Amino acid sequence: MLDLFNAVQPLHAALDYHLERHNVLASNIAHVDTPGYRPRDLARVSPSFQSVMIVALERTSNAHLPGSSTFGEAASGRIFTDAAAGVGNDGNAVSLDREAAKLAANNLRYDVTSAVMAGELRQLSYAANDAKG
Amino acid sequence: MQPIVPISDQVTHIGELRDGAPSGAPRVHDGTVGFVDMLKDAVGNANQAAQAAQAAGEAFATGARDDIHGTMLALSKADIELRLVGAIRNKVVDAFYELWRMQV
Amino acid sequence: MLGVFSALEVAASGLSAERVRMNTIASNLANVRTTRTPEGGPYRRIDPVFEAVGLDQLQGFPQLQRGVSLVRVSRVVEDQRPGTMVYEPGHPDANADGYVEYPNVNAVEEMVNMITASRAYEAGITSIDTVKQMAHSALEIGR
């Protein structure tokens, strides 16, 4: 009974990842004119990798702010700089078309994952309703 | 698909199935499947389809496979198989209660 | 499998390439009367050279590589046609005979190229929209 929602967990994680990636890509598009800006992207991390990466800094007093690295321990992914981007004269490497295409693809993956999750939950709901729709 | 044997013919055999000793009474029609076997098949198929759907969904979510319509098809198949099993079970239960209420 | 996401990648590469072409056209049109460059001589019109590169996903399927490929701007070349010589002895860039060499940019040619690039860009956008619609209709399976 306890693993009723086993199938939903990886789907939930995937939705989180896609939403965060959308934020990263939207920030790239916002920086289309920033000199020296290189576009960033979010790579998936496997759960085991994630547990290694998340190291909480110890605080000697509760009044201290929690430490965090400047380059993002995104909860569901690892931020990396897109090396394939070509650099313009001002050092800005953001290609609007590439980023927009990545955004469209990411959006599509989010939609499909959401539809898959809806299907799974609908099946569980059907069974929970005593197979009467 | 094999023709469905009317359940009234199988009711008399249910007791023998439970006891595990096949009686000397022959199957009603030669070459047809019994209802219980059909139900077992349906449950098995539904289980397989459900596992395949879960695997397909997970593969898409982790980025292993990019097949959109394949994933959606697997999900639909699992859904239909599950509903089929549910419908069969409902019909069996309804039929049982109808028989039960019969005045002898 | 060649799916929705490879189609998006291919279309996006087309958009990027056309954008580069637009940039070269804009540079040509802006420098239509530039008689002096740091390298010496007048401005020479530039053209991007496109090349087809295989999709990463196709590495395992060589037979498909001939069919589907990304566009990439391999280099930007200078047009080596000579510019027009105009007799202007008073011009600071006039040569010994009093002729000034103006860039080999033909404004009409550039406008035609610009229309082509713009249409190609629109076609790429249509391609992306269509494949997105196809994917969304696939989501309707079993809804």
Description:
The complex is a heterotrimer of chains A (133), B (104) and C (143). Chain A is mainly alpha-helical and 133 residues long. Helices cover 47% and strands 8% of the residues of chain A. Chain A has one domain (10-128). Chain A has a two-stranded antiparallel ribbon. The longest helix of chain A has 33 residues, at 96-128. Chain C has one domain (4-139). Chain C contains 3 helices and 4 strands. Classes of the chains: A mainly alpha (133), B mainly alpha (104), C alpha+beta (143). Chains in contact: A-B, A-C, B-C. The A-B interface holds A 7, 10-11, 13-14, 44, 108-109, 112-113, 115-117, 119-120, 122-123, 126-127, 131-132 and B 50, 53-54, 57-58, 60-63, 68, 71-72, 75-76, 78-79, 82-83, 85-87, 89-90.
Q: What are its keywords?
A:
heterotrimer, B: mainly alpha, C: alpha+beta, two-stranded antiparallel sheet, two-stranded antiparallel ribbon, 3 helices
Percent strand of chain A: 5-15%
Task: Write the H/E string of chain B, N to C.
Answer: HHH
Biggest interface, chains and residue tallies? A-B, 21 and 23 residues
Helix content of chain A: 40-55%
- Helical content class of chain B: over 70%
Q: Mean pLDDT of chain A, rounded to whole units?
A: 81
Ends of chain A: how far apart? 21 Å
Which residues of chain A form runs of ≥5 with pLDDT under 50? 49-53, 68-73
Could you tell me the radius of gyration of chain A in angstroms? 20 Å
**Unreliable stretches of chain B, pLDDT < 50, 5 or more residues?**
23-27
Radius of gyration of chain B from CA coordinates: 19 Å
Q: What is the number of domains of chain A?
A: 1
Question: Which sequence of SSEs, written as H and E, runs from N to C of chain A?
Answer: HEHEH
Please state the average pLDDT score of chain B. Answer: 80
Helical segment tally of chain B?
A: 3
What's the quaternary structure here? Answer: heterotrimer
Number of E strands of chain B: 0
Distance between the termini of chain B: 35 Å
Could you give the order of strands across the largest sheet of chain A? 1-2
Q: Structural class of the secondary elements of chain A?
A: mainly alpha
Binned strand content of chain B: under 5%
